């Protein structure tokens, strides 16, 4: 250990021990830590560990200086760069529209929140000033190797169905403690090259990076195991990015082997890196022969990611300089995703990060934040190169070589692949370790020489301690909210009563009222409660007391949804929920239709290329048009005239909404379905049937849509086509009473009386209490033949399209809406 690190890294005492062991614990726990009782089993829990252990380490570091009455830290202009970066992130956060998601993080955005970035910068300074000694770095590398080997073994055993942890979420073959399977491969690749660098420069005698004896054999075994695990994962995933990273990593290993040959006395040790290189080159051009049923990992392309980042920066000067804000890439994606995505199977996915972490940072932190980050990393890289070319101390050179190799691979990966909290931790951790090696200047002073600095250090130590206590309290509150939210999700999955779900969600909101996710789900649950209440009254006219109960439940749902939009006004899902609530209460709440339409217009503004919002908007106009249509039966001619004009205008507006949705996504079944409803009301029966045919072709097993098509064909007197469709429906569902009922009529028209009678007999068996069916069967047995198509035998299957009534009922067929009362934020498909 060099003298320049001895004053800091060689510190002894209880505080120094706490600092070191908090670092060891961080590098061991971050890759492998998770807890099963929150909705986010990885990111949230890892953020918790990151914040707590980093705060403990920083507090102990300051406490050590106060105890020794000596202030010592690495000095130089470089210290300003991370501070400038954090300052730019703070400005970006203040300008952000995402609120809680920006400052703290939620919905898989914990890794890029201001809180996490601030902790990463603190960890960077902590490592730079306390982890410069070979002993500490060896301990950190050992902790990291052990952790990633354990995580890797868990993944490998799961991939081949040999062992799974006893949790429902761990049954997936791709489950691991890092993130997606590609995320694990990226993380493991960095650790693999860190280990291989240790392997190459571990000489016999003094200055060994890997100790002699049994413990050294264990370390070497861990390096071999992680290399095998990494290559196995890479071969199974067969993602070209990892082969490129391997090639780059081997080049980093080899280039210094030529420049500093005396540090590599055992050329045979290059066998493993060369094997990695050979495998990478082969699989870069040849497809893997191993086919496992692993989860598919999808992401926006590099071109799409770049275009979204450019569009975000081009929105205004503030976004250009400081981006849209930490954690806001999901909003950027929805705002600027190309309409061509709607033609893909992933059209409805909300990608929460770009293809590469660097592009994500550019979009969310802007040119200033990204430039500060690049300057910091470029400064580190240049300093490391200088050190590796000029350093003469063997021990110092080896440790710099080891950490620089791992750091360089991690840095390159950020430009090719996305990140998560584990990967960001590893990168910032290696950056801090590299800085501890390449930042040479040490500044120190006794408190006796500078009482002001002593007082400052003491106050800062106390302040950090108080901040730690506050952080523990806030984190505890937030964690309790997550536990309550997870209970709500589990209760909903188990089919629990909505009242129980609301209880859990209310607890989550009480612990953390800043999350729009909790409030949105609470509003959804309260709306479901109102629907259940109405259903429990059996369709009878509500008494004033019953009406008040429903009104109170609806008011609660509206209040929760309104709070969600206030907290996160740029989340389309919040406006959509409010719009659907208002749409459901239009029949008894004056002005609700205008509010509903405005909510969906807001969602369209936020997410212009999503056809679902336009369909939601069109449904509002269609429902109000139906209300105007009902008024045409009034006796007052003025009322009839006004209702006729209003219906025509509303149907035209609805037609425009549904047509625009089809322009965005030509095969979007709900848009075609509701457009058919518009055409039917306008008397354009032929066009309505054509639209229903499109819906049926895309939903072959949807009996309701098929029946609507058959009914429309009957109205067009295309009895031959109606018969074919009804036969298909009856074959699909032999107990479909209305299908049997109408098919019997078609057979009667074709004078196939015996077949018609058999079908009606089946209807009677299925509906033994139905008098109409019995009467028809009796007439048929008496020889009576009817040529009039009867009314449906079952309610709710009328021959006209009735997609929306304005009541608190979600009856829309083929509507792509969540059926669960409570839904966590999806773990969006990550690259």
Features:
68% helix; disordered C terminus; 2 strands; 1% strand; mainly alpha; 831 residues; two-stranded antiparallel ribbon; disordered N terminus
- Provide the structure class: mainly alpha
Instruction: Give the proportion of residues in helices.
Output: 55-70%
Oligomer: single chain
Q: What is the total tally of β strands?
A: 2
Mean pLDDT across every amino acid position = 87
Strand order of the largest sheet: 1-2
**Poorly predicted residue ranges:** 1-10, 796-800, 802-820, 823-831
Give the end-to-end Cα distance, rounded to a whole number of Å.
41 Å
Strand fraction band? Answer: under 5%
Profile the largest sheet.
Answer: 2 strands, antiparallel
Rg, alpha carbons:
33 Å
**Number of helical stretches of at least 4 residues:** 32
Q: What general outline do the C-alpha atoms trace? A: elongated
Give a nutshell description of this structure:
The chain is mainly alpha-helical and 831 residues long. The chain has 32 helices and two strands.
Describe the structure.
With 831 residues, the protein is an all-alpha fold. 68% of the residues lie in helices and 1% in strands. The chain has 32 helices and two strands. The chain has a two-stranded antiparallel sheet. Helix 12 packs across helix 14 (329-336) and helix 25 (637-664) runs antiparallel to helix 26 (669-681). The protein is elongated, with a radius of gyration of 33 Å. Mean pLDDT is 87; it is low at 1-10, 796-800, 802-820 and 823-831.
Sequence-ordered SSE layout with sheet pairings:
Layout lengths: L2 H7 L4 H19 L10 H26 L1 E5 L5 H16 L4 H4 L10 H17 L3 H26 L21 H20 L13 H24 L2 H20 L11 H15 L16 H12 L3 H6 L6 H8 L20 H34 L3 H23 L4 H18 L3 E5 L4 H43 L4 H14 L4 H21 L7 H24 L4 H13 L7 H15 L4 H20 L6 H28 L4 H13 L3 H14 L4 H13 L3 H14 L4 H13 L3 H14 L4 H11 L50
Antiparallel strand pairs: 1-2
């Amino acid at each position: 250990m060099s003298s320049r690190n001895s004053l800091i890294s060689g510190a002894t005492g209880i505080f120094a021990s706490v600092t070191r062991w908090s670092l060891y614990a961080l590098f061991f726990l971050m890759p492998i830590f998770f807890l099963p009782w929150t909705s986010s089993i990885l990111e949230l829990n890892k953020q918790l560990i990151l914040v707590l252990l980093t705060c403990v380490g920083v507090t102990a570091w300051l406490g050590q200086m106060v105890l020794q009455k000596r202030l010592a830290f690495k000095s130089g202009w470089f210290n300003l760069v991370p501070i400038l970066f954090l300052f730019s992130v703070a400005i970006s956060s203040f300008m952000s529209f995402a609120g809680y998601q920006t400052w703290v993080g939620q919905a898989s955005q914990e890794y890029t929140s201001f809180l996490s970035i601030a902790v990463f910068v603190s960890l960077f300074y902590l490592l730079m000033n306390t982890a410069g000694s070979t002993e500490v770095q060896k301990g950190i590398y050992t902790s990291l190797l052990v952790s990633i080997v354990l995580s890797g073994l868990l993944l490998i055993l799961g991939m081949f169905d040999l062992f799974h942890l006893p949790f429902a979420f761990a049954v997936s073959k791709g489950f691991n403690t890092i993130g997606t399977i590609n995320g694990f491969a990226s993380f493991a690749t960095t650790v693999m090259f860190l280990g291989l660098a240790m392997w190459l420069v571990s000489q016999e005698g003094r200055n060994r990076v890997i100790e002699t004896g049994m413990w050294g054999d264990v370390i070497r075994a861990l390096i071999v195991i992680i290399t095998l695990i990494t290559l196995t994962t890479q071969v199974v995933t067969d993602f070209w990015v990892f082969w490129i990273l391997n090639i780059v990593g081997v080049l980093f290993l080899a280039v210094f082997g030529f420049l500093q040959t005396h540090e590599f006395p055992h050329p045979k040790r290059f066998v493993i890196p060369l094997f990695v290189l050979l495998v990478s080159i082969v699989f870069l051009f040849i497809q893997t022969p191993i086919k496992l049923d692993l989860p598919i990992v999808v992401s926006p392309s590099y071109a799409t990611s770049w275009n979204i980042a450019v569009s975000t920066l081009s929105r205004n000067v503030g976004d250009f300089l400081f981006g849209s804000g930490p954690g806001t890439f999901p909003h950027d994606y929805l705002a600027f995703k190309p309409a061509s995505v709607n033609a893909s199977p992933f059209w409805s996915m909300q990608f929460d990060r770009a293809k590469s972490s660097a592009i994500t940072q550019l979009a969310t932190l802007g040119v200033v934040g990204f430039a500060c980050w690049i300057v910091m990393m470029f400064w580190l890289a240049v300093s490391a190169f200088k050190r590796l070319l000029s350093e003469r101390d063997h021990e110092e050179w080896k440790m710099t070589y080891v950490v620089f190799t791992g750091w360089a691979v991690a840095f390159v990966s950020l430009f090719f692949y996305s990140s998560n909290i584990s990967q960001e931790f590893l990168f910032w951790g290696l950056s801090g370790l590299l800085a501890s090696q390449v930042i040479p200047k040490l500044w120190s002073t006794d408190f006796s020489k500078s009482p002001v600095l002593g007082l400052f250090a003491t106050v800062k130590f106390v302040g950090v301690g108080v901040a730690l206590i506050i952080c523990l309290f806030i984190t505890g509150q937030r964690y309790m909210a997550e536990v309550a939210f997870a209970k709500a999700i589990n209760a909903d999955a188990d089919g629990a009563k909505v009242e129980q779900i609301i209880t859990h969600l209310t607890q989550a909101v009480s612990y953390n009222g800043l999350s729009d996710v909790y409030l949105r789900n609470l509003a959804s649950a309260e709306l479901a409660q109102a629907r259940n209440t109405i259903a429990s009254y059996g369709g009878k006219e509500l008494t004033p007391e019953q009406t008040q109960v429903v009104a109170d439940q609806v008011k609660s749902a509206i209040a929760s949804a309104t709070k969600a939009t206030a907290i996160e006004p740029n989340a389309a899902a919040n406006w959509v929920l409010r719009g659907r609530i208002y749409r459901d209460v239009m029949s008894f709440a004056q002005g609700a239709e205008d509010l509903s339409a405005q909510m969906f217009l807001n969602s369209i503004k936020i997410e212009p290329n999503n056809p679902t919002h336009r369909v939601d908007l069109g449904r509002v106009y269609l429902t109000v048009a139906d209300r105007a249509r009902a008024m045409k039966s009034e006796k007052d001619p003025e009322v009839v005239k006004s209702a006729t004009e209003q219906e025509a205008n509303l149907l035209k507006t609805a037609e425009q909404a549904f047509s625009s949705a089809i322009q965005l996504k030509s095969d979007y079944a709900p848009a075609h379905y509701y457009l058919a409803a518009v055409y039917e009301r306008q008397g354009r029966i032929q066009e309505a049937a054509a639209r229903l045919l499109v819906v049926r072709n895309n939903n072959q097993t949807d009996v309701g849509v098929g029946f609507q098509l058959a009914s429309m064909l009957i109205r067009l007197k295309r009895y031959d086509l109606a018969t074919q469709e009804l036969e298909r429906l009856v074959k699909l569902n032999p107990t479909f009473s209305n299908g049997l009922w109408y098919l019997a009529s078609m057979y009667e028209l074709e004078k196939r009386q015996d077949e018609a009678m058999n079908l009606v007999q089946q209807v009677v068996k299925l509906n033994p209490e139905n008098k109409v069916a019995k009467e028809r069967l009796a007439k048929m047995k008496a020889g009576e033949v009817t040529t009039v198509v009867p009314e449906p035998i079952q309610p709710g299957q009328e021959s006209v399209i009735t997609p929306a009534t304005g009541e608190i009922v979600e009856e829309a067929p083929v509507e792509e809406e969540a059926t669960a009362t409570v839904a966590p934020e999806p773990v969006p498909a990550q690259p």
